[in-house]
């Protein structure tokens, strides 16, 4: 296949990684501070989101993962009591309701929260209609704007509604008459047409930054590359879900990811979650693009019907060959699309005669059909949302929860902490909290949590394409402290010395336990703790540097009852080891993306994989070589890989396979996977992850002071509680 890669392709795919945790800073796949809205990378002032509107929150206050956790409510008796006490202490609430209303808190909280939900529904529909490409096209045509000009769009095609239920709100006044500045996108994109516009964030004038980003996230739903990746990933998930039993953790994870994409891209899916006809047509075009791999067109015609048939076979073969091959499908499609674009322009080096006229027409249709179908999708969504705006005052909490779940989530993200319990009470009392409840992940239990031996709990948590979880021993002490213990057998696959074994077991165990318990405030009498920096290896040749932590570490606070974490790492455990225990194999080298399982721990194969990956990316993935002339690329990559194999920076571990060089933060990250915590970073194999805060150890274990957060501990305790 023709291998020329366009600039757009390099920009999109220069970060390419597969397994968790995220790659180290000197390894391919490290995304650093990259923030994203949907699939496209873009600057973000308000946290990081792979889901766009409904998954965005104020920077420093929360993250997408925390925002989703915030709405995962149990609605048990104790929770309702806490919400009630909070409402009674809320001066803002008390000042607007009468004393007798406290006798019917269900009614009053639902009224207060409903007004917020209606306002957020209006905000969502307002920004959505304004950023719809069909509306922009109509508006710009009216203004006769020339191509390439910036144009101010102010309510064209979006009448200034008078909504009696919310028009007295100050927030309504801010968003009821919004001017937006749009500019044509300037990417080397073969799907780019004059009618497509993208938000230029710094030039959007909507009153505040969070509205700018919400507008940008909504506009990006119509970016051709976002749409194509969404359709490919949805189909990829549909192929893979067949491999797992009904109601299994992996099936639930796949369904959750599909649900998240439907919320982020409502214009692509009908109420049953199936593609609209135009979306299906775009996916058929994707199949044609994939089929080009078997239908190259040098010196002749291309049969797009045959290419579509072959493309479906290629897609199915790859989707069923492995759960981590989504990036490979995307890569192949865009490489083939570059090939077709170059042939259409007669600019590639393909030998043979020029393309025949029929082929040229076929290719023109290939590209134009995607653009035309995106316009039709936008037109349908525009008509629907313009009608829905006029009906906002007739919507209740149940209507909005079912029809606009992303609006409910965004309302929870945007509400102040003081009023959050009003929203939680209203969702519980109305019965709508169940729509946002995360699935239970308790697979089994044995023993009693109050006994000296505690209770063994089996956590079965799926985060497709990865399966996590394991056994937790939970016991409650006389003072109410909850002790959560992991027992992990270490298996030597690297020929370790006794000294190395001792470091990898007891030294790491002690360091890990001391650091985590400091962070979460156990035993509660220490104010400071000196620990090894998480971005360094405890058992490497160089002695790691020290950092100081506050105990507890903000935002953690002293817990009541207290929680204590225990970890027992043993190479030759004195206990009876069985299948319910967790095991980590220690290899000299390991790279989890290598397709052949046996090759992942073969140092020569790991070296070859890194050199090959470095060359394929022109060195960009490794942060080097791209300034070198092509003939020096192989030597540059070979030299770099040879120099860095010994320090472990080119390895990629996971919860079952580590190396002697694994960083302290990676040990924490992987062990918390066995407690049931998921990844909070996005990479090509995990494109719609719930992004965490930058210093979360589940997002960025290479930060020197990455930490476990209160919601992480709460999540583990919730799993323990589910098993009671």
What's the short version?
The protein has helices spanning 7-13, 64-70, 77-89, 91-96, 105-130, 133-143, 170-175, 209-219, 224-241, 249-264, 277-291, 304-321, 326-344, 357-389, 397-403, 405-414, 417-430, 498-520, 603-616, 633-644, 664-674, 710-722; strands spanning 36-37, 40-41, 151-154, 179-183, 198-199, 442-447, 455-463, 466-476, 482-492, 528-532, 546-550, 563-570, 582-586, 657-658.
Strand content: 5-15%
- Tally the helices: what do you get? 22
- Based on CA atoms alone, the radius of gyration comes out at 27 Å
Number of domains: 4
Distance between the termini: 57 Å
Average of per-residue pLDDT values: 80
Binned, the helix content reads: 40-55%
| Overall form | globular
Instruction: Give the class from helix and strand content and strand pairing.
Output: alpha+beta
Query: Biggest β-sheet: count, sense, barrel?
Result: 7 strands, mixed
Q: How many beta-strand segments?
A: 14
Unreliable segments of 5+ consecutive residues? 1-20, 26-35, 143-159, 183-206, 351-358
Outline the structure in words.
- α5 (105-130) runs antiparallel to α14 and α5 crosses α17.
- The protein has helices spanning 7-13, 64-70, 77-89, 91-96, 105-130, 133-143, 170-175, 209-219, 224-241, 249-264, 277-291, 304-321, 326-344, 357-389, 397-403, 405-414, 417-430, 498-520, 603-616, 633-644, 664-674, 710-722; strands spanning 36-37, 40-41, 151-154, 179-183, 198-199, 442-447, 455-463, 466-476, 482-492, 528-532, 546-550, 563-570, 582-586, 657-658.
- It folds into four domains: 64-223, no CATH class; 226-378, no CATH class; 442-589 and 660-722, no CATH class; 597-644, no CATH class.
- The strands form four sheets. Strands 6, 7, 8, 9, 12, 13 and 14 form a seven-stranded mixed β-sheet that branches. A three-stranded antiparallel β-sheet has the order 3-4-5.
- The radius of gyration is 27 Å and the shape is globular.
- The model is unreliable at 1-20, 26-35, 143-159, 183-206 and 351-358 (pLDDT under 50).
- Helix content is 43%, strand content 11%.
- It contains 22 helices and 14 strands.
- It is α+β, with helices and mostly antiparallel strands.
